[in-house]
Known about the structure:
Chain A is mostly helical. Helices cover 73% and strands 0% of the residues of chain A. In chain A, 47% of the residues are buried. The N terminus of chain A is likely disordered. The interface between A and B is medium-sized, with 30 and 30 residues.
Amino acid sequence: MEYRKIKDEDNDGGTLSNDIENLRGIGFSGVASVSNVPPREQAKWKRNRTVVTVALTFLTSSQAILIVWSKRAGKYEYSVTTANFLVETLKCALSLAALARIWKSEGVTEDNRLSTTLDEVIVYPIPALLYLVKNLLQYYIFAYVDAPGYQILKNLNIISTGVLYRIILKKKLSDIQWAAFILLCAGCTTAQLNSRSDHVLQTSLPGWIMAIVMALLSGFAGVYTEAIIKKRPSRNINVQNFWLYISGMAFNAIAILIQDFDAVMNKGFFHGYSIITTLMILNHALSGIAVSMVMKYADNIVKVYSTSVAMLLTAVVSVFLFGFNLTLAFFLGATVVSVSVYLHSAGKLQR
Amino acid sequence: MEYRKIKDEDNDGGTLSNDIENLRGIGFSGVASVSNVPPREQAKWKRNRTVVTVALTFLTSSQAILIVWSKRAGKYEYSVTTANFLVETLKCALSLAALARIWKSEGVTEDNRLSTTLDEVIVYPIPALLYLVKNLLQYYIFAYVDAPGYQILKNLNIISTGVLYRIILKKKLSDIQWAAFILLCAGCTTAQLNSRSDHVLQTSLPGWIMAIVMALLSGFAGVYTEAIIKKRPSRNINVQNFWLYISGMAFNAIAILIQDFDAVMNKGFFHGYSIITTLMILNHALSGIAVSMVMKYADNIVKVYSTSVAMLLTAVVSVFLFGFNLTLAFFLGATVVSVSVYLHSAGKLQR
């Protein structure tokens, strides 16, 4: 369960409620992009975009490696809710630390002040609700598909993110970029093929519907977060993150009370923690911040490419670390994903 | 053996020596294309191109279905050399019949007269030698790879054809079209994946070298044939075919004498023939003519796409005819091939 849970958060780009903000009155079509940024800032934004994309790729990749490592080391009986709470707390602390440095050097401005309006924070629960429904569905979908089948179906997230990105954020992809996006989905799925993958074809209609609904929920949550962050391009990302994560802390505190109150009371908050748990919490916190940064300086499409490439990197690194064997399907999938990355970039020139 | 042999001819686009003509003094870079055709002829050529491409796709597809059918019906003990000879003879007869009709309606002209120069026919044995070496290597490669592995490695033909098409015919593909060609190779291989495919990764260096040499020989023979046929765009294709196929008849007659002389003498020329054998010969003859036509009106790239799509069609039709199951790998491969076909066409606009 731990493995599946973390893998899933990984694909959603954050923990249960780490990417939440008030969306009311955002007016989706008016979402800002790099072109809305003052010219003198553009070079800095482009540099930031590269740095956060690379960081997200490596953090996601090392995240999956930590998962394999923890699985090898045996099962840890810690409370997942406490770990999630600590991830949110750490992200909050890091955002505040970054802000403190900025206040010291630049002073408090309209863009970097922490205070906000009720209007800005009041609809935080909406994306949290999306994630909640999706995570609930996750328990039910296993009545229809097995775990490897679920891993395969999760690649539908790629398509749903692309479609919702187009519909909700009203951003256009060229025809070549759409072709590249279909290839990304096919390539990732191919790379994950194993002898049991064919079972997914026997999935019944309710199973497919649930998988598609989950993909849409996941894609919508990602696109929603981007809309929230892009709404105020000049607003300091650390302030935006602080408000995203403080809400995450609240939701996870409630989750501890409901799910793990007895375990925490009897065995202590940190029961079952190990060095790997600590590393995973650190990694999840940094990955979560990287996801927010990618939403700020790039977009959901870049995020999807970044996590897909991370999946391939993980497999290659696992060969050296754990003696895994790469399959022919992996090489073929990796080739298709590589061509997709190229086409996404080549397709831009056509616009 | 029969299956493998016919499958292999299929990928080579013809039997042992059906695509042979004098190449001496052709000056590869000066190869003609549609643009060299007089303007009033261009519409006709484009129509022909569509017709022969569709014909090749359906003939190749039905060829593979005949192979499955013949395998189900049991093994046929006919001599492959006599069947190949009959294929060449039938192609010759069909070319002559088409010519007779043209002579009747248009009269004999410089372009459609059958007579040729020694200079034009003398180097016929060169591509025949290429096929001979390739077919010899085919027997040795099975010391290094198993049959499913060989099917996978044969997709290297796609890449070798693209590379030789570029180098020898000096025709350019756009970057998008190159990406599409890599995808075509990856997609075809993915569609053919099965539980034993991974063995191919254990292929030793000599096995890889042989596979690459075979792919180069096969690709070179195809590109060579295109160069021969395109050298004289105004020359009637039936005349070009006649000279291609008459040489094929001669080579196959020699093959009968060497390989199957005793069997033919003792059991008769047509021993072991059945209705399926007859249909296969008919199909191979028509496919062979379609390949020549595609070389005339289109090119090797179109031929590779055509036979790749045929492979996918065959699999789909086999579901209904033979109750085959399609794998997830097939759907993924078919998706990648479809996107590749789209990109090949979309990539043209960029030039």
